[in-house]
Every structure is written in structure tokens, then in C-alpha cells.
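Field log, afternoon session.

UNIT: design team B
ACTIVITY: writing a sequence onto a fixed backbone
BACKBONE:
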């Protein structure tokens, strides 16, 4: 074997060893979250190798939705603690999530204001108060609007489109608030 081949093989061995070391393990930031039920926060992942899977130690406490290749939205569903494991083909990273009870009041005024504030993001394309634009939303049933938003948020419909990008940014409670707001506009 020539000296050049030996040197190349040694170099390839070092590169292979370096690539397989834990310095390239998937990481999650932050490693722990405390969120209220109905609220959400984003986790950033780095050094992902291949396809990423998410596992939950308890179902029903929090949901996880993909925002983009390295960001995932954690939404609090009900009070409790859960450990989420983000696993790629080489390693995994864990995020501990503590969900507290929601501090929202039961009066309708804050909900209406919250719905309008959240829905204002939609006015650019759907017109002020959902009055037109690409699709008129004002006066449609809340269940129809909510169903459409959930399809976009889950990626079932046009997963690479602008609606999916917007819908993925909201928690389930926020999507319901937006749908309710538009349904009550006449």
C-alpha cells in the first residue's frame, strides 16, 4: 500500500471517528419549560441527524408541533409534568415541561379582545375583520374556521404554504379564539 493511500485511510478514520462522537448529538434549547395550559413556547433543536421523532412520557399534558426544520412549538394542554424526547437516528435530547393551570378569566370581554388581537394577523390577506381578501372569514361558523385552522396547523393541508406557517404559530386555545372572533363578526 502506498504512503499516500495509508495517509488517506488514516485521515478517513479520524474523520469517521470525529463524526460519530457525541459532539454531533441532537440538542434542545431550552432543556426545560414552564408554560400555562393554553399557552405555548418554542424549542430550538440543533445538530439533527436525519429524521426527528418526538416521544412523550405522558399523553395529554402538552402537544408538539413542528414550526420549521429546527424549531418545535410546545403547547400546554392541561396541568402536569411531562418529559419530551426528540430523537434522531444517532441520539436524543430531552425537554422537561411543566404545565400550570391557565390564568385566563371566564369573562367574555378578554376573550373577545384576545380573539381580535390574534385575528389581526389574518387581516393582511383576509381583509380587516375578515371582510374579504383571499377568503371572507367574517360570519363563517366557528367550527368550520377552527377545523380549517387545525388542518393547516397539523400540516394536513398545504403544509408548506403560508396558512400552515401562520396556523402552526398558535396554540389550540388561540386557534379557537380566532375562529370564535371571526364567527361573531357580522
Amino acid at each position: 500500500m502506498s504512503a499516500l493511500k495509508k495517509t488517506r485511510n488514516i485521515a478517513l478514520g479520524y474523520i469517521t471517528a470525529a463524526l460519530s462522537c457525541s459532539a454531533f448529538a441532537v440538542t434542545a434549547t431550552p432543556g426545560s419549560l414552564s408554560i400555562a395550559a393554553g399557552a405555548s413556547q418554542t424549542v430550538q433543536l440543533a445538530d439533527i441527524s436525519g429524521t426527528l421523532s418526538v416521544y412523550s412520557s405522558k399523553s395529554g399534558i402538552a402537544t408538539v408541533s413542528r414550526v420549521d426544520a429546527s424549531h418545535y412549538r410546545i403547547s400546554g394542554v392541561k396541568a402536569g409534568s411531562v418529559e419530551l424526547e426528540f430523537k434522531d437516528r444517532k441520539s436524543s435530547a430531552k425537554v422537561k415541561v411543566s404545565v400550570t393551570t391557565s390564568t385566563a378569566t371566564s369573562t367574555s370581554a378578554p376573550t373577545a379582545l384576545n380573539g381580535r388581537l390574534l385575528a389581526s394577523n389574518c387581516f393582511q390577506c383576509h381583509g380587516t375583520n375578515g371582510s374579504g381578501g383571499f377568503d371572507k372569514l367574517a360570519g363563517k361558523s366557528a367550527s368550520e374556521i377552527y377545523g380549517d385552522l387545525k388542518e393547516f396547523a397539523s400540516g394536513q393541508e398545504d403544509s408548506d404554504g403560508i396558512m400552515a406557517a401562520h396556523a402552526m404559530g398558535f396554540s389550540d386555545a388561540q386557534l379557537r379564539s380566532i375562529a370564535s372572533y371571526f364567527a361573531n363578526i357580522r
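LOG NOTE: The chain has two domains: 25-100, 108-183.
NEXT ACTIVITY: expression trials, pending approval
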